[in-house]
Design a protein that fits this description.
Blueprint: H1 9-39, E1 42-44, H2 54-67, E2 85-87, H3 91-100, H4 104-115, H5 129-145, H6 151-156, H7 164-196, H8 207-219, H9 223-226, H10 232-247, E3 250-253, E4 264-270, E5 273-283, E6 293-298, E7 301-302, E8 309-310, E9 313-320, H11 333-350, H12 372-378, H13 384-387, H14 402-410, H15 416-435, H16 446-457, H17 473-476, H18 486-503, H19 513-524, H20 532-540, H21 547-552
Parallel strand pairs: 5-9
Antiparallel strand pairs: 1-2, 3-4, 4-5, 6-9, 7-8
């Protein structure tokens, strides 16, 4: 029914037109977001970059050289006022500048450019405003054709959540639990900024900088202190080790044509049997879409035409900073978490044992459960028994010191309240946007919906010029429409699933392979062949509970009913 198969005549034809138009408009939205990001650059002097990590400065100089036809071995000018360091809005450049640049003026310029991308406040060639309105109208028309009151109801018809009202209740309950912690996060930053940074009235572009400085002061820990230990090859080897140990496969390099230098191809095997194959494309570059994702190339499928078993294959894509001066790429711990996250998706696709294409791997899995395996894998990034095998200092080769890891662990839940509210803000905006019954020809003010959501849940004000909806590719070009809540929903599932590993840990602190085998068989191998709740219960023996998530995020309080309970 949801594919429009039961529609007749003009309605059937219009449904097909809507699908085609949505694909075209969504693609244009994505292109505009990418082009708006790529079009921006800011050439600054070395003096303006005070506080920014050396590897980011080196990358900015290399970018300037490449864009101005200078030789690759050209040395940076001695004049610290020479504007020859090119900054971009790509995350490996943008985020560390916002975290570490002492210049509030520089942070303001980058922040303003970032939050106004693809809007009426920046280059009009890339303005996504009308595309958003078009997409919302098309989705509403599609929902009505299929007999739903709004697109949110249509979206939830194939998800674990039963109704938009249930999702809104879940999100607002989570916001209520997180708000006291978020308010304390902000109060702590305000006090620290006034007492230590001479910032008595912080602006929106100051908060990331203040937060980083507070974390350094409170925990004697900086992401940049950890970064030299996470060389990309060593991290990848450590990731492969945990996958091979828990899920009883081997990962081997293999040969295949690639589209870019630095892309690698691998095979998963169990004994001599080929289980799956994947490409890994880790580095950011001009023209590459930002973010990180897993795309399936083909699914496991016992083909009816020839009786052959088709091997599943995937793309695993990230946007990490590339290595400079012949050194391996260095990852932040957040980058490491991102890598584990995307491999969780990849394992869900590649380790399936279902032979029917439409429900093998991630296919057929309820959208609000599809993040379970990805978020589950993130937990291993906080285990010493795992981390100690995946670090080696880029200069000395020494592993990450245990004392430094302990500092990381203490800082793990730093500002978890703020981070939770930020995700709830996105999810509420998405769900409310798609429960609005847009009328034909209505000029819907989606920005006002976002402003209202921020008024309801945010504890840090956003500037009036912020246009984050205009680059919200997840819901306008990425399949998460009326589904962004699934990140928090699935986080409940993943935290509870990981608690099983915590409960069965081996005496040396290592994850128990027997638990890994049960998880693989109950969840990864089952794919979409049964309801996600049934798969979860097959692994955990009960419905999910929210306790583990609140505990993992340092917000353990009295709890209420969990998703799907």
């Amino acid at each position: 029914m949801l594919s429009g198969a039961e529609l007749q005549g003009d309605q059937r034809e219009r449904f097909a037109q809507i699908q085609e138009q949505q694909a075209q408009v969504g693609q244009k939205f994505s292109e505009n977001a990418l082009d708006a990001t790529d079009a921006f650059h800011l050439d600054v002097s070395l003096a303006e970059l005070a506080g920014v990590p050396a590897d980011v400065i080196e990358a900015a100089w290399s970018h300037f050289k490449a864009k101005n036809g200078l030789a690759a071995d050209e040395n940076a000018p001695e004049d610290p006022q020479a504007a020859c360091y090119r900054l971009t809005l790509k995350m490996p450049c943008y985020l560390p500048v916002m975290q570490y640049a002492h210049s509030s003026a520089l942070r303001e310029r980058l922040y303003t450019a970032y939050v106004t991308r693809a809007s009426e406040l920046s280059d009009p060639r890339f303005d996504n405003t009308e595309l958003i309105r078009t997409l919302l109208a098309l989705r509403q028309e599609e929902a009505r054709l299929l007999g739903f009151a709004n697109f949110a109801e249509l979206s939830l018809a194939t998800k674990m959540a039963e109704s938009p009202a249930q999702v809104l209740t879940f999100l607002r309950d989570l916001a209520h639990k997180a708000r006291p912690y978020a308010e304390k996060d902000v109060a702590d930053m305000r006090q620290f900024a006034a007492e230590n940074l001479q910032l008595t009235n912080p602006h929106p572009w100051d908060w990331t900088y203040i937060g980083e400085k507070l974390k350094e002061a409170r925990f004697a820990f900086s992401e940049q202190e950890v970064k030299p230990y996470f060389t990309a090859p060593k991290v990848l080897a450590g990731l492969f080790k945990i996958i091979e140990t828990l899920f009883e496969v081997s990962i081997q390099p293999a040969q295949a044509p690639v589209w870019q230098a630095g892309v690698e191809f691998f095979e998963l095997r169990r004994g001599p049997q080929l289980v799956g194959q994947f490409y890994l494309d880790p580095s950011a570059r001009q023209g590459k879409r930002g973010g990180a994702w897993m795309d399936d190339i083909c699914a496991r499928w016992l083909r009816p035409d020839n009786g052959q078993l088709q091997t599943p294959m995937a793309h695993l894509v990230c946007n990490f900073a590339a290595g400079v001066n012949g050194q391996p790429a260095l990852l932040t711990h957040d980058d490491v978490i991102t890598l584990f996250h995307e491999f969780g998706h990849g394992l869900h696709h590649l380790l399936t044992q279902v032979n029917e294409r439409d429900v093998s791997g991630i296919s057929g899995v309820e959208w609000d459960a599809v993040e379970l395996p990805s978020q589950f894998m993130e937990n291993f990034c906080w285990e010493w028994s795992v981390l100690r095998h995946m670090t080696a200092h880029v200069d000395t080769g020494e592993p990450l010191p245990r004392a430094l890891f302990d500092k990381m662990l203490k800082a793990k839940n730093f500002q978890s309240g703020l981070q939770t509210l930020r995700q709830v803000e996105f999810a509420l905006f998405d769900m409310l946007l798609h429960t609005h019954a847009t009328q034909p020809g209505e000029r819907f003010d989606f920005q006002q919906v976002l402003n209202d959501v921020r008024q309801e849940v945010a504890v840090l004000p956003s500037p009036a010029f912020s246009r984050t909806a205009n680059t919200f590719s997840h819901i306008f070009a990425g399949g998460y429409a009326a589904g962004y809540y699934s990140y928090k929903w699935a986080e409940v599932l993943s935290a509870d699933a990981y608690a099983a590993f915590e409960e069965s840990v081996l005496p040396d602190g290592s994850p128990n392979p027997a638990t890994g085998r049960l998880y693989r068989m109950a969840i990864l191998e089952a794919g979409g062949s049964r309801d996600a709740m049934d798969s979860f219960k097959a692994f955990r023996g009960r419905a999910p509970q929210i306790d583990a998530l609140l505990r993992h995020q340092g917000m353990a309080t009295s709890v209420s009913a969990s998703p799907g309970a």
